[in-house]
Amino acid sequence: MNIKKIKMKLLGVFALSLLAGCEDTMLNNMVEDKVYLLKEGVQSVNVYNVDQPTIPIEVVKSGVLGRIAKLDLDIKPELLTAYNAAQQKEYKLLDPATYSLKSSTMDMGADDYQKAFELLLDGEKFKAEKAKDPTAILAIPCEVTLLNPNPDEKSIMQAIIIPTLVEPYIQFTKSGVSENDYKITASSLPMLYYYSKVEVNYSNLANVNFKVELAKDYQTLIEEYNVIYRTSPEYKEDYVLLPEASYELNHDWTIAYRADYTDIHFQILKDKLVDNSGKARYGMYILPLQITQVSANKIHPDRNVILARFKYE
Predict the structure, then answer these.
(1) Rounded distance between C-alpha atoms, residue 182 and residue 247, angstroms
(2) Contact 73, 57 (CB under 8 A)
(3) How sure is the predictor about 2, in pLDDT bands with cuts at 50, 70 and 90?
């Protein structure tokens, strides 16, 4: 056997021994699976009043060994009593009639990283309970038990959930009267674009289609604004409705799946802001726009209108 072949065999033996050593030591710094609540202790939770309002109680399993975990969840009023006494709080136990536990047991398989118990909230009953004492802080004291813990693991985990029911709305991000007048002058372009943002306050899992139109009570809105404006030292003349022929507005819009807003726009046609003789109609204008329809959930009752102000000079 020549020297070259001997060297190759020695290198092969060395490589195999190195790999074997790595296999023995690569897990030395890895921890066993740990099962724990994603959030323990007191936590405020926004619960969106969509379909079946749900409060998730998340359990996490970390590590590399991939074991199976078995857990139970119980509602423990005495946990809230003890917390109130220790922290000098007066949290009130939420009536169990306002919610239900989808399942009090949960198995996490070898490949599960995160799963959740689910508390199903009855929105109407919750609102009725809240109306009885609007200032009360209503709480759900939960205790999760890990039925097959490792020796160095906690078997008891606790959380006090304080739910707030949030109505799912579509709304203008900046509603009401525009902060400043949009300026239009003789040197402005013939077509001017203006933008506004419409958003939803929840995570939508489908396209949200909505309609924007001239506000139904535009005359009242303009007059209410003029009443305020007349008291301003800057007052010169009343605002009037922007003539329909002088703007173009697409009525139908969509907030895409998993997005939480979209920009809407409309165009001002400067050359249409003229009188019958073709003379420019200088002055103060308002365009009141309103979200009038939506394909899912609700339109915010107080943030559904914008009043865009224009000064043509």
Answers:
(1) 14
(2) yes
(3) low
% of the chain surpassing 70 pLDDT? 89
Per-residue pLDDT averaged across 91-112, rounded?
A: 95
Rounded percentage of the chain residues whose pLDDT exceeds 90: 81
Look-up: residue for tokens 């301003």?
Answer: 232
Q: What is the DSSP annotation of the chain?
A: --HHHHHHHHHHHHHHHHHHHHHHHTTTTPPPPEEEESS-EEEEEEEE-SSS-EEEEEEEEESSS---EEEEEEE-HHHHHHHHHHHT---EEPPGGGEEES-SEEEE-TT-SEEEEEEEE-HHHHHHHHHHSTT--EEEEEEEEESS--TTS-SEEEEEEEEEEE--EEEESS-EE-SSPEEE-TTS-SEEEEEEEEEESS--SS-EEEEEEE-TTHHHHHHHHHHHHTTSTT--S--EEPPGGGEEE--EEEEPTT--EEEEEEEEEGGGSB-TTS-B--EEEEEEEEEEEESSSEE-SSSSEEEEEEEE-
- What would the mean pLDDT of 149-167 be, rounded to a whole number? 94
Token reading at 24: 């023995």
Asked whether the predicted pLDDT for residue 12 surpasses 80, the reply is no
* pTM for the whole structure: 0.73
Q: Cα–Cα distance between 251 and 220 in angstroms, integer? A: 22
The reported pLDDT for the residue numbered 73 is 98
